């Protein structure tokens, strides 16, 4: 009788415990040995195979089918406001005799601390080759970029080279690019930054073949918000939903954060992104995407920022349709390779419940969290429980399991009451 009661109690728990066969499909994992923890950057294939917007259907199993501890986290680009500092801008001649490095010391007077006080020259006549001398001697940090502001002029494309120096004599190339200021019928083209090499210099010399008098102000940027993060991209494939409107479907958990042009040349596209809102569509962003080649140098915009996931959305295009792509910062799955391998990443069950996160507290520990992690990658795909696991769990199945569990507990309590009553009767 006791065996029957234990069986009635344990059967529901074993039925509720997850196994590889509870999931539709998965991927074998290749791991690095001799690491207590493994790190897997989720590729697009995993997002595409998962059916949960919260990635709650991901599990890692060892070769014996036992679930191992895992933790899912995402690297996010924190919205750090760029620390901008205005730089004093001086206009000097860029003529250099004999092809030697620029020596502007004869044109510049500096203070004892190195700050530029004035340039010893009169206004330059029109058509004279010019350069901009930027004074960054007051700063103590390396610069990530230089940002420029254009005067009240019309459209302009200005290709510039930037050199750095600490003594106004020896110059080293630290950056180059194309500055673009243009109003287009499909949107605005704005590229006003030149990325630098990340080293600190006291002075910067900006030269170019165009008229630099259009540049009226310069700013130093100290921080790049996406530093150290790797963004992944995937092409968009959609269907036409109307005149100039296309509809797209993405994996429910893909954390898209940018919309951009794919690998195209000389394209400018105005876009507006819409997502479902009841029976209507609401706008979540609009802007201009551009990508062009100027004097042999690629000029590409930053894209349109999004806040995903967005499983279904539409794009209204202003201009000829061109290939698009979306970008995201991928999740990272950390797991403990307990037991024998190979290990399997399972997914594909919309009704499965999340398991307790056993590694979260461990990874937050300053000592354990700093331990080196092995790198895991997905290998060949495997079929586990099949497509039937993609169906929503029927409500009566769970009702039966909990009913059996409840009857088992009641029966166990009744037997315990009978045993206590029998002992009291003997006494």
Automatic annotation (TrEMBL):
It holds the Pfam family DUF3999. Keywords: Membrane, Signal, Transmembrane, Transmembrane helix. Residues 1-17 form the signal peptide. InterPro entries: DUF3999 (IPR025060). The chain crosses the membrane at residues 399-423. This is DUF3999 domain-containing protein.
């Amino acid at each position: 009788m006791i065996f029957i009661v234990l069986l009635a109690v344990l059967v529901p728990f074993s039925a509720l415990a997850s196994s590889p066969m509870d999931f539709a499909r998965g991927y074998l994992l290749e791991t690095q040995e001799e690491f207590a923890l493994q790190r897997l950057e989720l590729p697009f294939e995993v997002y595409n195979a998962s059916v949960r917007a919260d990635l709650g259907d991901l599990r890692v199993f060892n070769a014996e089918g036992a679930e191992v501890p895992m933790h899912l986290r995402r690297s996010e680009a924190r919205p750090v406001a760029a620390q901008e500092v205005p730089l004093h801008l001086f206009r000097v001649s860029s003529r250099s005799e004999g092809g030697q490095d620029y020596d502007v010391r004869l044109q510049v007077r500096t203070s004892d601390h190195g700050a530029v006080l004035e340039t010893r020259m009169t206004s330059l006549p029109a058509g004279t080759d010019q350069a901009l001398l930027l004074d960054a001697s007051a700063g103590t940090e390396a610069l990530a970029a230089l940002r420029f502001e254009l005067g009240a002029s019309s459209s302009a494309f200005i290709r510039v080279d930037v050199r750095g120096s600490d003594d106004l004599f020896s110059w080293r190339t630290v950056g180059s690019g194309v500055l673009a200021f243009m109003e287009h019928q499909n949107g605005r083209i704005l590229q006003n930054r030149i990325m630098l090499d990340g080293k600190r210099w006291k002075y910067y010399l900006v030269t170019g073949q165009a008229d630099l008098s259009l540049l009226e102000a310069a700013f130093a940027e100290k921080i790049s918000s996406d530093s150290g993060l790797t963004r992944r991209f995937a092409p968009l494939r959609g269907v036409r939903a109307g005149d100039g409107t296309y509809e797209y479907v993405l994996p429910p958990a893909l954390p898209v954060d940018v919309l951009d042009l794919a690998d195209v040349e000389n394209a400018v596209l105005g876009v507006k992104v819409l997502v479902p809102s009841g029976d209507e569509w609401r706008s979540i962003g609009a802007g201009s995407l551009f990508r062009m080649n100027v004097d042999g140098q690629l000029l590409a915009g930053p894209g349109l920022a999004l806040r995903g996931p967005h499983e279904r959305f539409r794009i209204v295009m202003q201009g000829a349709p061109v290939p698009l792509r979306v970008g995201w910062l991928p999740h990272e799955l950390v797991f403990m390779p307990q037991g024998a391998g190979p290990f399997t990443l399972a997914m594909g069950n919309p009704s499965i419940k999340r398991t307790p996160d056993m590694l979260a507290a461990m990874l937050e520990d300053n000592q354990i969290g700093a331990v080196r992690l092995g790198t895991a990658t997905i290998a060949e795909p495997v079929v586990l429980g099949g497509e039937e696991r993609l169906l929503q769990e029927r409500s009566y199945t769970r009702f039966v399991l909990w009913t059996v569990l409840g009857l088992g507990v009641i029966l166990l309590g009744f037997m315990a009451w009978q045993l206590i009553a029998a002992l009291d009767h003997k006494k």
